[in-house]
Specification:
A seven-stranded parallel beta sheet has the order 3-2-1-4-5-6-7, sandwiched between helices. With 270 residues, the chain is α/β, with parallel strands linked by helices. Helices cover 44% and strands 13% of the residues. The structure holds NADP nicotinamide-adenine-dinucleotide phosphate and coenzyme A (COA).
């Protein structure tokens, strides 16, 4: 059976789509014919991404907004709806992360990550809901292994991403009757990304992370983009409410390797 992924004429919105994994996802959809809209805080990053997406030959647009500001999201998404029509695919991936031990983290530091990752995911879904194609829309939230693997120096991210996956499951139940599917993707360690720079800042930690992946390689943004396209294609039309790791098996053995290295980095003995 020949399988063709084609998003020609479809509208894809990627929030947090201006760098790293999410930009890779936006590029995958653009390469496969979609009209793609991206958003993030930095107008400069939005402009740069829109220009790059247009180079694939299709239409692209963007707006700047902070996912902590639901009204800004509503305004921006309304302009996308006016220009591109209803949203066939919504990818929600804006996030913030830094390694910090709970005892060293201010309440506002914890709150910032929860506000961006968890509240932001709700804001994006809530603001986009009126514009989703029904039936047929695919919503993909970008989660992280921290959602189900406790890690040293990641209490804020673990709490926030666990919440993201429960939002995924609850929305899959609430919006399923309208023909809207909602799933989470859990990327593993993805090469060249800001997330990896922050969590594996030394060559030693990076190598240990790579070794802890059963497939013995870091992922690429294309690995995540491909699965995002699959989940948003007719091939996955009966898949909703799943939390799908795209991690080369990284999460199978738990995060103990990365966790203990961060512990060594942040809690030097003596
Ligand atoms: P990244 O390059 O820093 O991407 C984050 C994106 O979100 C950027 O476009 C950023 O643009 C935007 N953003 C951040 N805060 C925002 C806010 N408050 N409002 C709106 N947009 C905001 O990071 P990444 O490493 O590729 O991570 C992307 C996603 O994958 C995240 O959800 C992360 O949790 C997840 N993930 C990453 C890895 C990894 O290996 N990197 C592993 C597991 C999960 P602006 O700065 O312009 O706002
Ligand atoms: N360790 C401990 N606390 C930290 C910290 C660190 N490395 N970095 C930031 N904080 C604290 C700040 O001190 C502040 O708390 P305070 O007001 O009590 O001092 C709080 O977090 C918010 O920081 P601020 O810089 O004002 O937040 P922001 O909204 O401008 O940025 C972040 C949000 C902190 C998440 C920032 O790192 C960011 O924008 N990240 C996006 C990119 C990213 O993280 N990519 C990887 C995705 S996996």
């Amino acid at each position: 059976m020949a399988i063709e992924i084609d998003f020609s004429g479809k509208t894809v919105v990627v929030i947090g789509g201006t760098s790293g994994i999410n930009r890779g996802i936006a590029e995958c959809f653009a390469k496969h014919g979609a009209k793609v809209a991206v958003a993030s805080r930095s107008q400069e990053k939005v402009d740069d991404t829109v220009q790059a997406l247009k180079a694939f030959g299709g239409e692209a647009m963007g707006f700047s907004a902070d996912v902590r500001d639901v009204d800004a999201l509503k305004l921006g998404l309304a302009t996308v709806f006016e220009a591109f029509g209803s949203f066939d695919v919504l990818v929600s991936g804006a996030a913030g992360n830094f390694p910090a031990l709970a005892k060293d983290m201010s309440a506002n530091a914890f709150k910032s990550v929860v506000d961006i990752d968890l509240l932001g995911t709700f804001h994006v879904a809530h603001a986009a809901y009126p514009h989703l194609t029904r039936p047929g829309a695919s919503v993909v939230n970008i989660s992280a292994p921290q959602a189900f693997l406790p890690m040293v120096a990641q209490a804020h991210v673990c709490a926030a991403k666990a919440g993201v996956d429960m939002v995924t499951r609850c929305l899959a139940m609430e919006w399923g009757p309208e023909g809207i599917r909602v799933n989470s993707i859990v990327p593993g360690p993805i090469d060249g990304t800001e997330g990896m720079k922050r969590l594996a800042p030394t060559p030693k930690i990076m190598e240990a992370t790579r070794q802890s992946v059963p497939l013995k390689r870091l992922g690429g943004t294309q690995d995540v983009g491909s699965v995002c396209m699959f989940l948003s294609s007719p091939l996955a039309s009966y898949v909703s409410g799943v939390v799908l790791p795209v991690d080369g098996g990284f999460s199978l053995a738990g995060a103990s390797g990365l966790s203990s290295l961060m512990e060594t980095m942040l809690m030097p003995s003596g």
